[in-house]
């Protein structure tokens, strides 16, 4: 098994790209990543995407994107794991290089949600829940988050205001990310005044669906120095799953897949949570940020919001999260999000994160699918 | 890079499963495959599926199926490459084991098309074409096949009747496969009299969409003998792509992805077409069978139908194809088909193909996505 490094990164702005097609966004990110690596070709392409079939009747993104990006007739398939599709594609690229089968792999996460109206897009996003036991009965992704947040507040005696620091931090960081969808700071007051999406989930608890594409170039670590001035090593890659329907889980407030996946990744990298200098987590909803911090060992059960209250999640804090805006402010282009996280982590480790630079040599990214049915964790180091 | 073997196979009947859900079919095939291998658990699951998002608003099949099959919290994601999704999932399983990351991998192909009416299912199937340049303008998968077949007949001076032997052979073989959707032989006369689907593609040129699931258990070849009396080795695994829209290809009658993928696979296995004793090809339409035989080196350009006319594709022929009924008679459960092909090839190599047994020690399976935008080729040996 070979060690794997990231030698190229690319991304489009996350947001509403009315004038651009899915394949165009994907090719844009891929060509940026290849240029970053000083390469023109690759042996394989893995595309992470969740909804192109449902929203635009286009499957087969592997061949479609490989062709549009000028990659020729290379191996190219799509990987889907709901919101974690992009991260799962990174995992596939990792396996391709680690196996010795492929030398240069491009991974691209891409999503275009604005080709459909917002209601259709949110309904489609909800196909990441259990269709027969959840969404068929009207439960949406924001609805699931509402149930989890209500339960969290009840069990741990916290209020809506305790969730505010997650959103405030994300928006603060988004200001300095030119590729973020939202670049305006928000106040706790605005957070509390915002309208309800799915009580108690308010508008500022929820990440916006949007369009975007991000891409990586992977190669064996033994070749990485030839291609990049600062290759970023993938120290660990892991995937765990849980029951899809929240009501089937033993404890709805314990993200078991996130826990197991983080444990495996930390073990593979031979480190503990205290060694992680930056953590790009899945803040699709503020409550998911709290639950992720707890599941991954950065906070005790029920104490995730205290980390946020005490400023420990800020760029200067103990465990900076959402350093480029997170899902909340950078935007959440579903199947692309997991690749954006890795691109942003690579920027941090290369020292190219600008005003949001964190001093660190080891970072973790974790992407969740649905309400936590799958967790894909990567640990990167320089 | 480790060698990989198949130590367990399982399948449900292909057909109309009105009373069973997608997850139920998938778990059925997986549990059969695990039983065949004498195992209860696996390290990872790759699910091949094309349309569960479009037809039943259910994504996230990795976690969903892993849970339903009792596999616990293992790594589990979905792989999509249109009709070749199942074969692409086999490829991912191969990479997982070859890399040394996973010891026991389950691959499952599953599709449920009967949850939607036939028109909706065929429209969804057509999302394997180029949505913006083909299906949006009304071109369906049978429509693309009609264009290709018309062109084939024009270029090579063959008639509809020359395509008949492909369908007759497939239905003859389906009779002896208890898991086939159609188990009745057909005559050339019936073939010629059948109604048009997309002129000149008639009903018996086209494989039926249906429901079904098939599964494999993969492990390192070094461990295979412990688990199976007759492990089947994966001697080669390859993927190539082509432009998705037929009009963008240099030559619409040359399946470039099929050609490149077969060449890579033959090279990896160190053999030539003459060494292949059985070939499970992608006979979604009779013309695709002819084009596949030509692209993979079993017949010269324009001569595919002659192989069929001369009986060389029969179980006793020079290059038996569709030995368990093929897509035409076993049925074409889209994302499951590529795994069915591998299961059937394994049955042949294990000497368990019953009345359709071919005497062989090396076989090839090739699955195509859309009208040939992707080709996934595996060579198996015993």
In total, the number of strands of chain A is 11
Oligomer: homodimer
**SS strand fraction of chain A:** 15-25%
Arithmetic mean of pLDDT of chain A: 97
Poorly predicted runs of chain A are none
Pattern of helices and strands of chain A: EHEHHEHEHHHHEEEHEHEHHHHEE
Number of helices of chain A: 14
Helix/strand/pairing category of chain A = alpha/beta
Give the overall silhouette of chain A. globular
CA-to-CA gap between the ends of chain A? Answer: 20 Å
Spatial strand sequence of the major β-sheet of chain A: 3-2-4-7-1-8-11-10-9
Largest sheet of chain A: 9 strands, mixed
The biggest chain-chain interface is:
A-B, 63 and 63 residues
Rg over alpha carbons of chain A:
19 Å
- Helix fraction of chain A by DSSP (H/I, runs of at least 4): 25-40%
Notes on the structure:
Two copies of one chain form a homodimer. Chain A is of the alpha/beta class and 382 residues long. The first copy, chain A, has 14 helices and eleven strands. Chain A has helices at residues 22-37, 52-56, 61-68, 85-98, 118-125, 141-156, 164-174, 188-193, 221-227, 256-269, 286-295, 304-309, 326-330, 334-350; strands spanning 4-11, 44-48, 75-80, 105-111, 196-198, 201-202, 212-220, 232-241, 278-280, 362-369, 374-381. In chain A, the strands form two sheets. The first copy, chain A, has a nine-stranded mixed beta sheet with strand order 3-2-4-7-1-8-11-10-9, sandwiched between helices. In chain A, α1 (22-37) packs across α3 and α4 packs across α14. The radius of gyration of chain A is 19 Å and the shape is globular. At the A-B interface, α2, α3, β3, α4 and β8 of A face α2, α3, β3, α4 and β8 of B. β3 of chain A pairs antiparallel with β3 (75-80) of chain B.
